[in-house]
Amino acid sequence: MLLGVMGNPIAHSKSPAMHNAALAACNIHGHYVPLHVTESALKEAIAGIVAMNFRGVNVTVPHKIEVMKYVDELDEAARQIGAVNTIVNQDGHLVGYNTDGIGYIRSLKEEAMSDLKGKSVLVIGCGGAARGIIYALLGELPGQVIVANRTVDSAYALAKEWGHLGNIEGCSLAEVNVKAQHVDLIINTTSVGMHPHIQNCPIEPAHIPSGIVVSDLIYNPLETALLQHAKAKGCCIHNGFGMFIYQGAYAFEYWTGIPAPIEAMKQAVNQSFTS
Ligand code: ATR
């Protein structure tokens, strides 16, 4: 079974280590390779999936949007989110999926909040990552989703676009401190707090409510300033590591049809961080 990941750059991707460990753990004879694909070569590279009989690929930065043009069919979620990160080759017919959002939600449910139904959620940011997460989140029937963004018009536009999928509203970053007081879960999808600006926090620490769940998509560092402050407030914290593992798990399951060996995948990624 031939698999791979297309991106530019791609050399530092942890996906090959993760998926090769998964293939080995399931006794599947196959290989998952990093594929350095430039923007101008994307179309030919996608055609190459069929030509070289790959079972599928992951697609990463900067190709997740552009690649939508080159698949034969788009999964409904990928179409609504507007990005593809996984392609399955069904006997020459390429189907594009987005496993980032559902991967994140599966990680959140397994590690921090098992049931999202009826919950009130504040999402900070509304870029590409947030779209995947919010779409998957709405599928869990939360009571309320508040999307706060620096460019407030994008938050309003998203709330309008997906208003038919659930109770969703947009707000400005200035309103975050007040809105946070009434939620069960805060999710940061922005790069605020990412290495090297690790002291930055997307919400004033004093306004993080005690005892709620706080999640940050960032995994460098694994414990951002937001999560450190939340921990000090007795919150349950959740980082971006699981999102990476579970987006891979869903992709693996689409390609192979069998449950992903989560522990082997986590172990391989942890090992590749230290090696
Ligand atoms: P990604 O695919 O990682 O989500 P993106 O699509 O560029 O990346 O989106 C980044 C998100 O983080 C956006 O919501 C962005 O806000 P804007 O829409 O106003 O650009 C938000 N963001 C990035 N840097 C930020 C900062 N310094 N402060 C607040 N929000 C920030």
Automatic annotation (TrEMBL):
Catalytic activity: shikimate + NADP(+) = 3-dehydroshikimate + NADPH + H(+)
Domain Shikimate dehydrogenase substrate binding N-terminal: 5-87
Keyword field contains Oxidoreductase: yes
Binding residue positions for shikimate: S13, K14, S15, T60, N85, D100, Y219, Q247
Pathway info: Metabolic intermediate biosynthesis; chorismate biosynthesis; chorismate from D-erythrose 4-phosphate and phosphoenolpyruvate: step 4/7
Top-rank lineage group of the source organism: Bacteria
Domain Quinate/shikimate 5-dehydrogenase/glutamyl-tRNA reductase stretches: 109-192
Record: active site: K64
Protein family: Belongs to the shikimate dehydrogenase family.
Protein function: Involved in the biosynthesis of the chorismate, which leads to the biosynthesis of aromatic amino acids. Catalyzes the reversible NADPH linked reduction of 3-dehydroshikimate (DHSA) to yield shikimate (SA).
Name of this protein: Shikimate dehydrogenase (NADP(+))
Name of encoding gene: aroE
